[in-house]
């Protein structure tokens, strides 16, 4: 197996298609994967989902790059779903699987065209970089405002350096990406003049920074990481991250990150309750639900939480970064938009505590300085969800038709929430030390 070639193939594929995710841990309810992963000892994999063709591909993941230059261990394995058999594959077999998938999903693409579209991306181990100083020098010496194609400059000149420094643990990729974003933001102030094409440098750079063009997807604009809340999407530990006492109800509501070893069977029972099946639509077998969480929890776009009432689990909610979600295709999403899904388990109205539970969710999300507004897309079939959202300050923008439901697209800003619940403005969790990210958020809000 040529590991350099297969690394380039996988990284190129991930840049062009979205049917992949990280996969963490050794599963409990998937016997074939549990047996294989227990033998290899690898805890983190990249999973390529070709399940429509009855296949999955797993690659041991040594380093996940925010710039898209991942580093893998080997070998690569294919699992055929009909018989649960796992096989080691080489680069030719992987290309064949990819080509089969592309021809199935895009019948007008011929095999030769499919292979030609897989351009080469070097592994960070092959990229030589002197130091962070070299990155800073190149960033400061390049007049980004004069780049005819800023995206090409970013991918060609900067991202390989970012990935190499991150892989070698010389710098944090997110901080380097934020430095590029900050440089672009400064140029917005320094270069407000018209160019020969009568397009403002301001608009060119702003479009580059926001990356809202649908044509850029599924490869996500890495400069969005300047607005990424790791506290929400990749929380550290499994302990309580937020807690609040409500004297009227005499309850304490607390929030903690989802723990797959502790919570999987519990939420499986929740999601199979009658009131959950129609709206939540996650009444899956345990093996499928475990796959969902093992792909979500290590990812960089969404995370799940458990809400507790006086220490007892009561509700589940997910926080997701909208620019990395399909919802971004249905409105002009900003990188400061964060969405939530909420499911309250009890049916008994005296045990639901909907308002305190939802308030704590908003307190926790709005406590993060990267968040500009919260977004919801509850099913139009759920009047209770709509009323609950309206109660805390959400306003319906429009009705949208998603692949799996017709939904009320609704927004909520801090000020709208605080207008409903003025006491939340002064909670300790809302007191956040100003950071560069807050400054960037203020800039993007004004624009």
UniProtKB/TrEMBL annotation:
<protein>
    <submittedName>
        <fullName>Acetyltransferase</fullName>
    </submittedName>
</protein>
<dbReference type="GO" id="GO:0016410">
    <property type="term" value="F:N-acyltransferase activity"/>
</dbReference>
<dbReference type="Pfam" id="PF13523">
    <property type="entry name" value="Acetyltransf_8"/>
</dbReference>
<dbReference type="InterPro" id="IPR016181">
    <property type="entry name" value="Acyl_CoA_acyltransferase"/>
</dbReference>
<dbReference type="GO" id="GO:0019290">
    <property type="term" value="P:siderophore biosynthetic process"/>
</dbReference>
<feature type="domain" description="Acyltransferase MbtK/IucB-like conserved">
    <location>
        <begin position="256"/>
        <end position="303"/>
    </location>
</feature>
<dbReference type="InterPro" id="IPR019432">
    <property type="entry name" value="Acyltransferase_MbtK/IucB-like"/>
</dbReference>
<keyword id="KW-0808">Transferase</keyword>
<comment type="pathway">
    <text>Siderophore biosynthesis.</text>
</comment>
């Amino acid at each position: 197996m040529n590991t350099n070639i297969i690394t380039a193939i996988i990284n190129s594929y991930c840049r062009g298609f979205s049917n992949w995710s990280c996969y963490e841990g050794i599963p409990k309810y998937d016997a074939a994967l549990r047996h294989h992963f227990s033998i290899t000892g690898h805890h983190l994999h990249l999973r390529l989902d070709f399940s429509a063709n009855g296949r999955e591909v797993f690659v041991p993941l040594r380093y996940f790059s925010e710039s898209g230059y991942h580093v893998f261990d080997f070998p690569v394995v294919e699992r055929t779903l009909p018989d649960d058999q796992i096989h080691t594959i080489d680069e030719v077999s992987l290309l064949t699987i990819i080509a089969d998938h592309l021809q199935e999903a895009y019948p007008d693409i011929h095999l030769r065209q499919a292979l030609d579209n897989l351009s080469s991306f070097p592994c960070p181990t092959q990229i030589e970089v002197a130091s962070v100083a070299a990155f800073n020098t190149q960033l400061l010496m390049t007049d980004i405002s004069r780049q005819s194609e800023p995206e090409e400059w970013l991918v060609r000149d900067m991202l390989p350096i970012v990935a190499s420094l991150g892989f070698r643990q010389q710098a944090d990729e997110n901080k380097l990406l934020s430095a590029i974003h900050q440089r672009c933001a400064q140029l917005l102030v320094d270069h407000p003049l018209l160019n020969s094409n009568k397009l403002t440098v301001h608009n060119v750079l702003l479009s580059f920074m926001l990356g809202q063009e649908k044509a850029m997807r599924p490869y996500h604009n890495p400069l969005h990481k300047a607005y990424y809340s790791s506290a929400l999407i990749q929380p550290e530990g499994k302990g309580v991250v937020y807690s609040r006492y409500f004297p009227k109800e005499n309850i304490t509501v607390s929030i903690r990150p989802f723990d797959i070893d502790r919570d999987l069977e519990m939420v499986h029972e929740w999601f199979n309750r009658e009131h959950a099946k129609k709206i939540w639509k996650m009444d899956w077998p345990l093996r499928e639900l475990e796959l969902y969480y093992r792909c979500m929890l290590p990812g960089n776009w969404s995370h799940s939480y458990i809400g507790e009432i006086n220490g007892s689990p009561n509700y589940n909610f997910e926080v997701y970064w909208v620019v990395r979600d399909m919802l971004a295709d249905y409105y002009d999403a900003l990188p400061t938009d964060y969405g939530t899904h909420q499911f309250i388990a009890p049916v008994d109205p005296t045990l639901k505590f909907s308002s305190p539970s939802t308030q704590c969710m908003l307190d926790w999300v709005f406590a993060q300085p990267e968040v500009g507004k919260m977004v919801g897309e509850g099913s139009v079939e759920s009047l209770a969800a709509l009323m609950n959202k309206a109660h805390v300050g959400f306003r319906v923008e429009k009705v949208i038709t998603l692949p799996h439901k017709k939904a009320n697209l609704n927004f909520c800003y801090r000020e709208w929430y605080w207008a409903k619940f003025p006491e939340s403005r002064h909670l300790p969790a809302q007191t956040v030390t100003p950071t560069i990210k807050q400054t960037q958020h203020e800039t993007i809000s004004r624009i």
